Amino acid sequence: MSKRAVLFAGGNLYKMPKIKAGDLIVAIDSGLEHCQKHNVLPSFAIGDFDSASPGALAWAKAKQIPLLTYPAAKDQTDTQLAVEHVLSSGALEILIWGGVGTRLDHSLANVQLLLFIAQRGAQGIVSDGQQEIYLLQDQLTLEPQDGKCFSILPLSLELEGLSISGARYPLLGVHIDLGDTRTISNEFLEEPVELSLENGIALVFIYPKDL
Question: What is the CB-side half-sphere exposure of residue 134 using CA atoms within 13 A?
Answer without folding.
Answer: 17
